[in-house]
Amino acid sequence: MAPDIVDMPQRQKLVIVGNGMAPGRMLEELLKRSPRAYDITIFNAEPRVNYDRIMLSPVLSAEKKFEDIIIHDDGWYAANDITLHKGKRVARIDRDAKVVEAEDGTSASYDRLVLATGSSPFIIPVPGHDLPGVMAYRDLDDVDAMVEAAERGGQAVVIGGGLLGLEAAAGLQMRGMDVTVIHLMPTLMERQLDTAAGHLLRQAVEARGIKVLTEANTQSITEKDGKVSGVQLEDGQLLPADIVVMAVGIKPSSGIAKDAGLTVGRGISVDDTLCTSDPAVSAVGECVEHRGMCYGLVAPLYEMAKTLAANLAGEEASYTGSVTSTKLKVTGINLFSAGDFADAEGREEIVLRDASNGVYRRLVLEDNRIVGAVLHGDVADGAWFFDLIKRGTDISEMRDTVIFGQGFAGGTPLDPTAAVAALPDDGEICGCNGICKGTIVEAIGELGLKDVEGVRMHTKASASCGSCTGLVEQLLTLSLGDEYDPAGVPPMCGCTDLGHGDVRRLIVAKNLKTIPDVMQELEWKSSCGCAKCRPALNYYLLAAWPGEYTDDNQSRFINERVHANIQKDGTYSVVPRMWGGITSADELRAIADVTDKFNVPTVKVTGGQRIDLLGIQKEDLPAVWADLNAAGLVSGHAYGKALRTVKTCVGTDWCRFGTQDSTGFGIRIEKFMWGSWTPAKVKMAVSGCPRNCAEATCKDVGVICVDSGYEIHFAGAAGLEIKGTVVLGHASTEDEALEIIVAVTQLYREQAYYLERIHKWAARVGIDTVREQIMDDVDRRKALFERFCYSQKFSQIDPWAERAQGDQAHEFMPLADLTRMQAAE
Amino acid sequence: MTINTDFIDIGTVEDVPVRGSRLVKTPDATIAIFKTIGGQIFAIEDKCPHLSGPLSQGIVHGNRVTCPLHNLVIDLSNGQADGPDGGPNGKCVKTFPIEIVDGRILLKPIDVPSEKVA
Predict the structure, then answer these.
(1) Helix (H), strand (E) at residue A668
(2) A589 to each of A285, A488, A592, A621, how far by Cα in Å?
(3) Interface predicted TM-score (ipTM) of this complex, two decimals
């Protein structure tokens, strides 16, 4: 064999089969411990990146969209040098040769192999189970199929009244279908709930308009015209159905492990180090059977992932099984269960019921320790009970009050934050991600976090299913006192309780396309909005539906409605565009002529290298524009939440220090981007060398030309606040620089709140996040660029020319002039 | 001078944009004619009691308009400003009587005490 030309120790090859949440978490933990230990390859049967599967229910109910639940995007795999084979299902494992091979022949050899094949939905083998219209509820393809079916309306039957079945039913019902849940057992979610809680749950589900049939055994699925038409029950009932969703459970996917000769029980058998019967092969997640248990909830999978990562990194760690808790993710139904609550010898129970409020709490005790808890209605104490279960705390001291929750335990006063305050630092707050109180409190203090979003971004707490958001808020209150606003997100205005972010998200999620639709669907409190929310909604709709949404002129501030700036005396100022600050004798002559003809009182040079004509009467605007248009001058958008100016220096054209054609590039940017509406005004500049004569480093986006190309800056400000820019990245060609500038502007257009300048937006979402999306993820950058270009098709029309030709004439002419009538008397 | 005491035909209801306004110039004042989302027509002086901003240029929402200069909100039906004391110095905007006949707007361009006029 020829000697290896690279004089470096060969990294061990790690191959992972499956790309769900368990291996995703395992990789994060592994890379954190030892980033360069392995050369990593992933085979994923699904044709996409890793996403948060437990958030599929909010996607189904349209409360979230797929992009919101992505955990690792393409950029993450690239940044970590991981080869991801999307849409490639592994067909076989050759353990002797240490090679895995996909169905299409792609193969990879390994030193260590991790099986994370997950689970597959259990399909009851009744006649008709394979008809079109019968679906499972497992991955995004299933959700897409359900959403598509729900668009046609009609009736849905969900087989299975467990966690998944009920979430599917609620989602389909929110999508407008008529839904019936059929369940084999006498009560819903019998594996997690006792009969009393099951009964309360049934009432809550039925109150949402979902029909529930229990002790209903499916005999067959009936067919008409080659697709499903209904469900035939054993008792003779026939339920008509346009779709049937099977959500009766999952079974570990252990087929390839079995074929490869590994020990397999219900799932792939592993020991406490998550090793299979072959020491080179480990397994993690739902495909695993550990100490006789198979898990389908996220918390145990994450615990396994952590153990496996530690072992792969050469540490010694063991997994000894998990106590699990469950929370139903259906908006408006509050349910929590944890541990074991079956009746057994030596077990006692404490029960609290408040029927009229739908509150039910049951604790199962063994030797004065809580072993199981079921909560319905008020689930705020769930985390506390779960903590007591996991720790095996002796509760004899507080037995009389324990059922009332932590607020009352030990006779402490009812302070909403007392519960969290009393938790020890290693008390778990976020079950999904295994984040403890201490970690969160430390992050709040050290990183100066001020809100839930910040905590999510930096610690991952409440970033998965979100059910611990309340606890995170309490920790913020505890740490920050009055500084934290418990209302969380400030509402857009008095017309709604929703914040800007929620409104933007819901406009897209609910496919809302007009201002009245938004107000109706999002339950606006006023009939017609106000001067704060209407311009914001108009912008959000314009940005979300380019080419489709019709601009609502009456919802724009006067400056944007008449394309000029109102002044204190009710007259207007007019600023024609001078591309990159370059003008000519003809343009200046036209400006001088307009000044004379319309008696313009003040002509001023602006800070953005333009000329401002102040004091023009509104009625004169169309005529002023017509004259300016005739000389080739168009609207400068000095009045708009839009691209204002691109300031330039003379660059290589004249300057002895210039490194690039800064003037030409500034003009190119301005010609490319003018007319685009943005959340707030956008000012740019291009300086031809680091001496920075165009003052690019206090702009929203600025460029400093250097010998090697273009340094792109952003998030500067020189207004109410003064702030220098930060570097976004470097581009070696003008085309690349333009792509970056356009993409970051588009990202800002899609994410920022109305009137939020780029620097505020960047501070809110994080400078690094912006950099990752624009500089590291080239595919994403190109997609943003394309979306900007598409929206420009509908915005690059000179509004002055339109109005000079008579558009919106009513804006500029009085309805009647009674002064003349009187004069005629 | 009889002209200022009678109702004068100033145009049609259609001439005024919904959630918008048009102006009528008179020797004494400039009057803004507003049309609300419900199609109601109001006439008030085009002058904010705060710093004389042109109310006609504001955003119309419900039966109210927000002044374009400093965001004072004025009730079109009575000219009162929003706020605990009815706006700066308790002032309000002059309103004018309106009649709608066969889709035409008739305006009586004289001052009236604040009251709902249409």
Answers:
(1) helix A662-673
(2) 75, 55, 5, 18
(3) 0.87
